[in-house]
């Protein structure tokens, strides 16, 4: 009996060994699973960044969807007539991508923003659609190059933002130096395409700025020189200039005041018979006061003024506007904004454009991410 039990035990152990050997042989024939490279959070540059798998590059994706309804008139310097649609529905979208990584020469950054807008009704009853690259630039340390804001771009308005002074987004290459204690100095070569018909350029504009940002707010001043190269070779080349600034001041808890403006010269209206060599003069100013009377509600009051003298009287005009805006944030990353404003334009008596004024209103719903 004892011998029989030993035989049974030996049989069981032998069978188990055979199964293990067989399983090992079959497992050796199976493909080996590659380790999974999960997306990891990158906290070196703030919230929203993650590592692109397999790289040291951190990427942040953002954007917005905005829907609005407005009565025409905001920013419309041509005035309105009965042939225009006075109510406009529009939708705007933005996608942004920011890639950053550290190198031996500093932080390497690439930033892109793509904007798209669709208007169901515009002046004259037509449908307006448009997509464009709003920004696309490269930065390495303090050096930058690409499509981005001009160093001359100042505006304190929130509702009526067409009283800003400067050149807006353009192609440029420059350098920003961090001087410490919130002070930054910058210099750049910028494209200049604001000359009117009858003049061009053969060189970039040269701009520079100095800014400071601290607990009390921020302040920036800038200046630039651009070329005016007339098509009439008998006329010498002119150089226009621009100088301006913008300040934001934290007056009290929840209360902010902004002021911006600038003065500059540009090509005059040659088409109106102005003698070549006479540069027009213009200046603009804007101011804004914003009060957050709740964590999710802000009331803003804005005003702006602009004046242009082209020495030919036909293009001379003065204009001003004011607006009131209320922004409500019901939940994080969602805002509902209502605006109402008044604008008036006065043209020189010899101008073919008639004086006009209008009242405009709009409501916008914006979701950001």
TrEMBL record:
Instruction: Name the predominant localization.
Output: membrane
Q: Does the keyword Repeat apply?
A: no
Put simply, this protein is called Porin
Q: Which InterPro entries match?
A: Porin_alphabac, Porin_dom_sf
Mind telling me which Pfam families this protein's record contains?
Porin_2
Its domain description in UniProt is: Consists of 16-stranded beta-barrel sheets, with large surface-exposed loops, that form a transmembrane pore at the center of each barrel. The pore is partially ocluded by a peptide loop that folds into the pore lumen.
Please report the record's description of how this protein sits within the membrane: Multi-pass membrane protein
Matching entries from SUPFAM superfamilies are given as:
Porins
The record's subcellular locations are: Cell outer membrane
Q: Which PROSITE patterns match?
A: PROKAR_LIPOPROTEIN
UniProt keyword annotations, A-Z: Cell outer membrane, Ion transport, Membrane, Porin, Signal, Transmembrane, Transmembrane beta strand, Transport
Annotated Gene Ontology cellular component terms: cell outer membrane; pore complex
What does UniProt give as the signal peptide span? 1-27
Give the organism, scientific name.
Answer: Cohaesibacter celericrescens
Any idea what job this protein has? Forms passive diffusion pores that allow small molecular weight hydrophilic materials across the outer membrane.
Q: What family is this protein classified in?
A: Belongs to the alphaproteobacteria porin family.
Molecular function (GO) terms listed?
porin activity
What are the recorded Gene Ontology BP terms?
monoatomic ion transport
């Amino acid at each position: 009996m004892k011998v029989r039990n030993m035989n049974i035990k030996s049989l069981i152990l032998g069978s188990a060994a055979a199964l293990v050997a067989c399983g090992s042989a079959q497992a050796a024939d199976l493909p080996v699973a590659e380790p999974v490279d999960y997306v990891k959070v990158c906290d070196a540059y703030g919230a929203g960044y993650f590592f692109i798998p397999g790289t040291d590059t951190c990427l942040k994706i953002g954007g917005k969807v905005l829907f609005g309804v407005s009565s025409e008139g905001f920013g419309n310097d041509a005035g309105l007539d009965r042939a225009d649609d006075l109510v406009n529905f529009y939708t705007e979208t933005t996608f942004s991508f920011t890639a950053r990584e550290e190198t031996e020469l500093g932080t390497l950054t690439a930033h892109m923003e793509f904007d798209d807008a669709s208007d169901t009704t515009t002046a004259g009853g037509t449908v307006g659609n448009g997509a464009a690259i709003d920004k696309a630039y490269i930065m390495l340390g303090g050096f930058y190059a690409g499509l981005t804001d001009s160093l001359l771009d100042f505006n304190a308005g929130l509702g009526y933002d067409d009283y800003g002074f400067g050149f807006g987004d353009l192609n440029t290459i420059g350098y920003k130096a961090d001087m410490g204690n919130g002070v930054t100095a910058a210099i750049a070569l910028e494209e200049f395409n604001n000359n009117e018909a009858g003049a061009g350029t053969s060189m970039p504009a040269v701009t520079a700025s100095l800014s400071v940002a601290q607990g009390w707010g921020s302040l920036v001043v800038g200046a630039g020189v651009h070329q005016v190269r007339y098509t009439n070779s008998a006329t010498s080349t002119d150089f226009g200039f621009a100088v301006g600034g913008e300040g934001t001041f934290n007056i009290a808890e929840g209360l902010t005041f902004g002021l911006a403006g600038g003065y500059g010269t540009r090509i005059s209206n040659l088409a109106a018979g102005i003698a070549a060599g006479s540069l027009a003069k213009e200046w603009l100013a804007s101011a804004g006061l914003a009060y957050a009377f709740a964590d999710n509600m802000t009331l803003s009051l804005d005003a702006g003024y602009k004046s242009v003298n082209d020495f030919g009287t036909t293009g001379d005009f003065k204009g001003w506007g004011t607006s009131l805006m209320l922004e409500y944030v019901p939940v994080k990353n969602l805002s509902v904004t209502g605006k109402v404003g008044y604008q008036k334009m006065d043209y020189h008596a010899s101008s073919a454009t008639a004086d006009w004024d209008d009242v405009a209103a709009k409501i916008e719903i914006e979701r950001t991410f």
